[in-house]
């Protein structure tokens, strides 16, 4: 048996055992007291009944009849006069009864009273009822019941309670075994799952255990395992992509450097090779810068200094900077921005976002197409949409466009340039501004990137 099962089982067993002991003690005490009280009430009622008979007809025959009735019952009766002198009794009066009858009586109520109720230590329990038969005759009706009979009743009651306690004890043990097993089994499975996770084994799949806390914990561990597995795969893919991306420019640089060093080549060819080396060095430098930016973003070390800017004026500046690149490729660039919009952004970092998205529009759009930048307010938020009429992105690629080194162009054609990190940086920067970015695209009809930001007042 596992330690947690044993501990939980023992703890639950002792707690439930103490609860049951307390409950049985209260139940036993209550039942005993209730049973004794019933006997005393019945005894007093019987004495009052004899009193009524005496008051209706006080004769020697009546006294004899009452004594005869009690002789055949499990109770006894003693009838006395006003001086407590015994007139008649249903059986021979013993010392215990004499002791009770000899007690001085004062202010006995009409309904009678209990004289002795100590059933544990005395031989009898007893009641007394006063009677008045005419002007010259009065006295008392004493009723007695042996405590041996009470003890027998209590003994039978104890036997029944002990039997019930034994059954409850057995049921408690069985319930405890099943319950502790039911509670600890998922905990043990979760412990084993976390041990597998700590060893790098992410193939963890815990069963669904409902909507309670254990079920939520089980699902959380399963989700954690899936996330860790995905992160491991992404890390491996990331390292593989870095290796590929770095190896390609380094291979070009080394290869063309070896060729350029040859003394036998023409000067024009040497210049051409040196130009390729320069371009690959620039590409490698841009990639390293992007990687450093992503590393800073991952460590939350990327400083965002936001300020409240007038969006229309800001986008006009971006428009002027990007316009020559669009004109060179003969792509029309339109801009439409609400003049009343203000947003809280880092001007430098947000410009990096827009340049990256506009640069993608240039790369993937044909001449004589149009790219639009639209900024409007909607439900307390500002959205900035950059739409082009380029090649578009296949639907199966849309969920991954913000992944690092992911390229829609699987051939990784070099004429489009880029490091495969631009959109990852864009997403990280947008989220660092407290916003979100969405992408919509249709093949051969164009792509739209939409940035959502919180609107600020002037």
From TrEMBL:
GO biological process: monoatomic ion transmembrane transport
Residues passing through the membrane, by range: 6-27, 161-179
Domain HAMP stretches: 181-233
Chemical reaction(s) catalysed: ATP + protein L-histidine = ADP + protein N-phospho-L-histidine
Compartment(s) where it occurs, according to its Swiss-Prot or TrEMBL record: Cell membrane
InterPro entries: HAMP_dom, HATPase_C_sf, HATPase_dom, His_kinase_dom, HisK_dim/P_dom, HisK_dim/P_sf, HssS/ArlS-like, Sig_transdc_His_kin-like_C
Keyword Signal: no
Record carries keyword Transmembrane helix: yes
GO terms for MF: kinase activity
Coiled coil, from the record: none
Location of the Histidine kinase domain: 241-457
Superkingdom in the source lineage: Bacteria
Keywords tagged on the record: ATP-binding, Cell membrane, Ion channel, Ion transport, Kinase, Membrane, Nucleotide-binding, Phosphoprotein, Transferase, Transmembrane, Transmembrane helix, Transport, Two-component regulatory system
Major enzyme class: transferase
Pfam families, alphabetized: HAMP, HATPase_c, HisKA
EC number, UniProt record: 2.7.13.3
Main subcellular location of this protein, as a coarse class: membrane
Membrane disposition: Multi-pass membrane protein
Name of the featured protein: histidine kinase
Organism: Bacillus badius
């Amino acid at each position: 048996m596992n330690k947690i099962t044993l501990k939980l089982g023992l703890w639950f067993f002792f707690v439930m055992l103490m609860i049951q002991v307390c409950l049985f003690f209260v139940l036993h005490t209550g039942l005993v007291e209730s049973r004794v009280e019933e006997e005393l009430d019945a005894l007093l009622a019987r004495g009052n009944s004899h009193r009524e008979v005496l008051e209706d007809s006080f004769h020697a025959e009546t006294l004899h009849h009452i004594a005869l009735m009690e002789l055949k019952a499990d109770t006894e009766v003693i009838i006395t006069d006003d001086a407590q002198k015994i007139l008649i009794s249903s059986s021979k009066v013993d010392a215990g009864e004499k002791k009770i009858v000899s007690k001085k009586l004062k202010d006995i109520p009409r309904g009678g009273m209990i004289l002795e109720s100590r059933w544990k230590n005395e031989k009898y329990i007893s009641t007394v009822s006063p009677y008045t038969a005419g002007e010259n005759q009065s006295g008392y009706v004493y009723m007695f019941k042996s405590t041996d009979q009470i003890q027998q009743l209590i003994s039978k009651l104890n036997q029944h309670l002990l039997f019930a306690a034994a059954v409850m004890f057995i049921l408690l043990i069985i319930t405890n075994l099943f319950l502790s097993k039911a509670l600890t089994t998922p905990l043990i499975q979760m412990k084993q799952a976390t041990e597998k996770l700590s060893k790098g084994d992410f193939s963890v799949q815990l069963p669904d255990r409902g909507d309670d806390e254990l079920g939520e914990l089980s699902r959380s561990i399963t989700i954690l395992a899936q996330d860790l597995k995905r992160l491991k795969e992404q890390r491996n893919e990331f390292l593989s992509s870095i290796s590929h991306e770095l190896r390609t420019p380094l291979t070009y640089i080394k290869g063309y450097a070896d060729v350029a060093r040859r003394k036998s080549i023409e000067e024009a060819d040497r210049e051409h090779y040196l130009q390729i080396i320069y371009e690959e060095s620039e590409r490698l430098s841009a990639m390293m810068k992007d990687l450093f930016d992503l590393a800073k973003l991952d460590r939350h070390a990327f400083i965002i200094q936001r300020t409240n800017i007038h969006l229309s004026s800001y986008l006009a500046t971006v428009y002027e900077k990007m316009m020559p690149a669009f004109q060179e490729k003969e792509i029309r660039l339109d801009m439409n921005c609400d003049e009343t919009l203000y947003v809280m952004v880092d001007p430098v970092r947000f410009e990096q976002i827009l340049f990256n998205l506009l640069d993608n529009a240039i790369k993937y759009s044909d001449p004589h197409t149009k790219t639009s930048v639209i900024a409007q307010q909607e439900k307390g938020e500002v959205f900035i949409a950059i739409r082009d009429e380029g090649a578009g992105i296949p639907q199966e690629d849309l969920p991954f466009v913000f992944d690092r080194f992911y390229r829609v162009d699987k051939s990784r054609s070099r004429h489009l340039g880029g490091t495969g990190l631009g959109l990852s940086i864009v997403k990280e920067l947008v989220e660092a501004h407290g916003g979100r970015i969405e992408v919509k695209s249709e093949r051969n009809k164009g792509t739209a990137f939409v940035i959502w930001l919180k609107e600020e007042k002037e």
